[in-house]
Design a protein that fits this description.
Length: about 260
């Protein structure tokens, strides 16, 4: 999504999501600065664009997955499995004619997010569906669970087979300020625990006779770092990747609730 803002009466832009977020963080764009992006009816102060988590659609309303605005259900159509309002319809159709993925081709199945490879996720927080202010790119890797049986045979065999049959999917995920901070906190905790654990572990090995407890504490901290990093530091994780789609764990209920059901 491309953003514009005004400065001294002149329009600046366009800026991508990451560049725009950097301008906001640096203070170049203040809460009172007028901003605009495709799909917005008029220029509005930045504070009006990022008010926090949106209210859920009322009865008879549906959120357009292109402009993210709530629309009457008789003012939307379904294109490639996503709801699009009449104003955004020409934009999306043009992208489809050009063979370019729009912000659709995503769905949900249970607690999982289903995304077509190459699709662009909407500019909403993956956790709470608030307007996104940050993004991060992640290359997801997945292989069938039966491969782990090879660990019993040989770690090298396991690594080779897993590398050969793994499937990959590359996406850019979006987060709001709140959940970006949570992600950064969790990754910092896991990283510090890893460094601290390695230090204690090595120190304990060097002085094993006089400080066995240092070795044990270091081992415990290393285990904590690994478990915490897997459980909290990753934000998202693939549960399955096919030739065309990725099934992803980690999306919030508010985000998933606004997506169509995956019909396979």
């Amino acid at each position: 999504m491309e953003w514009y803002y005004t400065e001294d009466g002149e329009r600046r832009g366009p800026f991508g999501d990451e560049d725009f977020a950097s301008l906001v963080e640096s203070g170049t764009i203040a809460a009172t600065t007028l901003v605009w992006r495709e799909g917005m009816a008029d220029w509005v102060p930045l504070a009006d664009v990022t008010p926090g988590p949106p209210s859920p659609p009322a009865a008879g309303q549906v959120r357009c997955m292109e402009c993210q605005q709530l629309q009457a259900d008789d003012n939307v159509i379904t294109l490639e499995g996503q709801t699009v309002c009449s104003a955004c319809k020409p934009i999306v159709l043009q992208r489809l004619r050009e063979g370019v993925f729009s912000s659709n081709q995503i769905a949900r199945t249970g607690k999982q997010l289903v995304v077509a490879k190459g699709a662009q996720l909407p500019d909403r927080c993956l956790k709470c569906s608030a307007p996104a202010t940050h993004s991060f790119r992640k290359l997801l890797r997945w292989h069938p669970s039966w491969v782990y049986i090879l660990v019993i045979v040989n770690l090298l065999v396991f690594a080779i087979v897993a590398m050969c049959i793994q499937k990959k999917a590359d996406f850019t995920f979006k987060l709001c300020d709140k959940h970006w901070g949570i992600r950064r906190r969790d990754r910092t905790i896991a990283g510090l625990a890893l460094v601290f654990g390695v230090g204690l572990f090595i120190g304990g090995l060097v002085a094993i006779e006089n400080a066995r407890w240092v070795f044990l504490v270091g081992l415990a901290v290393l285990l904590f770092s690994g478990v915490y990093g897997i459980a909290r530091g990753g934000t998202v994780a693939p549960s399955k990747i096919t030739e065309t789609h990725a099934f992803i764990k980690g999306a919030g209920d508010e985000y998933l609730a606004e997506l169509p059901t995956w019909e396979g």
